[in-house]
Amino acid sequence: MSAEALLSLDSVTACYGRLPVLHDVNLDIKPGEIVALIGANGAGKTTTMMTIFGRPRASQGRIVFHGKDIAQLPTHDIARLGIAQSPEGRRIFPRMTVMENLQMGAIIAGDPDGFDRDLEHVQTLFPVLKERADQRGGTLSGASSRCLAIARALMGQPKLLMLDEPSLGLAPLIVKQIFAAIEELNKDGLTVFLVEQNAYHTLKLADRGYVMVNGRITMSGTGAELLERKEVRAAYLEGD
Ligand code: ATP
C-alpha cells in the first residue's frame, strides 16, 4: 500500500452472500489522479466501487481513505468523509425536480450549508441543470439525467468522486462532453475513480488504470501504457 494514497484497497475480498466476487484486490488512488478500472461485463468493477462504499462489505482486507480504515463503516459515514459515488444508469430520484435531487446530494454529503456554492459550480459545469431546474428527474433525457447524477455526487465537494460507467448508452458527442467535464473537474483538483467498459476514452483520460478479470486485478499501468498493451487492445479495444 502506498503511503501517499488518498484511497488504498489492500487485499480486499468481497462476496455476494457466499459467492466470492472480488479476490485479493489491491488498488491505490493518489490525490489528484484519475484512476480507471476497466474490464468486461461482470468482471467485478461495480462491485469494487460498491465495496469501497460499504455495500457489500469487504470480507477481508483493508480499505484506507485518508489514513483511516473505512472497511467496516456504514455507507453514510463513508459519504461524509468525502467519497461520492455516481452509480451506473439513471440513478436519480425520478419524482423529485432537478433542484431537489441536488439538495438531496448536499444532504447525503452532510453539507447542506454549502448548497448555494455547490449549486453554482454544477450549473456552470452542466448548464442544462439550470435550464431544467424545476423539471422532474424522471422526465429528463438520458444525457441530462447522467449529468444530474454526476452533479448530485459533486454536491458537498467530495475528495474522491467515483463514477460507474458515465458514458454507458450515450451518443458519442455526449460521451465527449461528459469526459471533458470529468477532465475539467480533475484539473480543478478533484480525484476521480472511473469504472468503465469504454476502455479507449477512459485510458486516454486516466493517469493510471487497472484491468479486472473475474474479480482479480490482472494488469496495471499508466493509461498510455495500458493502451499499448496488446492484451488490452485485443480484449477491450476491438472496434474502437
Ligand atoms: P458490468 O459492467 O456488467 O456492471 P461489472 O464488472 O461491474 O460488470 P459487477 O456488476 O461487479 O461487474 O458483477 C460482478 C459479479 O457479481 C457478476 O458475476 C454479477 O453477476 C455478480 N453480482 C453483481 N451484483 C450482484 C448482486 N447484487 N447479487 C449477487 N451477485 C451479483
From TrEMBL:
GO terms for biological process: L-amino acid transport. It holds the Pfam family ABC_tran. Keywords: Amino-acid transport, ATP-binding, Nucleotide-binding, Transport. GO terms for molecular function: ATP binding; ATP hydrolysis activity; branched-chain amino acid transmembrane transporter activity. It comes from Methyloceanibacter marginalis. This is ABC transporter ATP-binding protein. Gene3D superfamilies: P-loop containing nucleotide triphosphate hydrolases. SUPFAM superfamilies: P-loop containing nucleoside triphosphate hydrolases. Residues 7-239 form the ABC transporter domain. InterPro entries: AAA+_ATPase, ABC_transporter-like_ATP-bd, BCAA_Transport_ATP-bd_LivF, P-loop_NTPase.
